[in-house]
Amino acid sequence: MPFTLAFIAIGAPLLASGLITALGALLGERVAKIGIGALAVAAVAAVLTLYQTVHQEPVVLRLPGMPALLAFATPTWLVDRLAAVMMVLITAVSLVIHVYSRRYMRSDPGYVRFFTLLSLLTFVLLSLVTTGNLLWLFICWHAMTWLLRALLSFDDTRPAARQAGRTTLYVHGIGDAALLIGVAWLYAAFGTLDLPDLFQLVEQPSLVPTFRIATDWEISAVTVATLVLVASVMTKSAQFPFHVWLSGTIEAPTPVSAMLHAGIVNAGGFLVNRLAPLYGMAPTTLYLLFIIGALTALIGAATMLTQPSIKRTLVYSTMGQMGYMVMECGLGAFALAIFHLCAHGLFKATLFLNSGSNIHRARIEFKLPGHHPVREASGFSLMTWATGLAVTLVLPLVILLIAHGLVHVPLFEAQGAVIFLFFAWVTSAQAVFSLYRLTEVASWKVSATMLATLAFIGLTYLWAGESFTHFLYPRPGEPAAYFQAAAWPWGLFEVFVALSAVLVVGVWVILYGRAHGLRLLPDWMETIHIRLYVAFLHGLYVEDAVQSLSGSPARLRRCMSETTMTGR
Q1: Quick one: which of 206, 188, 190, 322 has its CA closest to 263?
Q2: Which of 360, 379, 456, 494 sits at a 20 to 30 Å CA gap from 51?
Q3: d(Cα 407, Cα 77) in Å, to the nearest integer?
Q4: What is the mean pLDDT of residues 336-357?
Q5: What is the pTM for the complete model shown?
Q6: DSSP 374-402
């Protein structure tokens, strides 16, 4: 039964793509109804598939009749809880985008081709998350690259769109090559590409080959493979410095941008979770993922705050969120990464689809007489300032600690519990600080919203840390093993948490000071702040460097000129 429903969910977009291509000349813009109907069927089938997988073990289906010579390439489907959750996310987002695109793309000369590509992309994504064979995973992964290029350069009359498509193809080509090398390495080491068989082999340490490097250094075949696959994660999920393709997504139609930021960019996080048994045996790779994710999150968030364009703000917001997701994978919190992936996909699709109306509203408000979008700083009150700071920083932490003690999440004792509580603390503190600055709204409304936000975030993190983790990885001891594999030496871990907490508190103090007109930084630090602001405004000039390498001397000269001016 789950396979029947899964095949309906996978096949419906493919059938729609074929029908749209065949009947496009006859039906014209009415082909949108075919795509919407097919995605509605796929979404219902995906939800029913998820319901079925909750009540039974993962099901593996292999296509029989393949010659022995091609046994390694036998199509295999693996429908487990991870695949079912991803199917629901993909079909739901794609359905909304199909409905939105019906009117948004009206009168576009490429209307039929757009819906053909969109339905085909949905089919490839669904095939990717349900495949149980690494070779077919690579085929879907690489097909996604070409479809991504086609959608980004959809309006091929615009040079910027064509350049965005080329950049995407080059960057993703690096990750695709790395994935192919990793797949070949795993086949050479274990003799199989079927994921269920591969997972059974790696669970037996005696069957995992090791290689001696230099004199006394041995490295596991699993570690080598996962390190190679990190490049694939970095390119598809826009990790620094492979994020340069992401800014080109604003050159595509808005529905395409929504699909890319809500679907394709999540592929890296899915790959890590699909191969979680491999990554759980490679602590070195998990440490590297944490560093890459943390760096990307910081750069993406800082760059986002400096962008004057709504769409570019959303682009770098996605970059920061993807860094956050990869960082969670590096901490062994694989289920939290999937939860984050789903939440990000849903809200980022909505934000991109709504970006047009936000731009229109901002222009109208700016032109209104007497309208002042920038509010003057209010007078400084030490009591208000100190109370707000304490409520923002201390209260969320106290509530989370009490809730953790009452609920008692046994799975994440030691470092796992600290990681979850730290993430929840930072998230809730950020939310409360944002609400704290809503001085135009009645205070009781803001206060009630603060309490509701704290409760919602705290319960959500506790649920994601316990129930959702056991839902995705129901085997006893599996999630705890992943946390153990990613565990740091306790001394280093305590230093990192302490420094991070000090940094968070310090930044909050500075933000509160600025909100009340209080300058807390010396002049020389203000100068550095301005220079950093300009650098992040230009994305640390990474995009300019890539353009210069692709043969754009004018842009390189502009980059160098701006850098020189910034340094004065």
Answers
A1: 322
A2: 456
A3: 38
A4: 75
A5: 0.80
A6: SPPPPPP-HHHHHHHHHHHHHHHHHHHHH
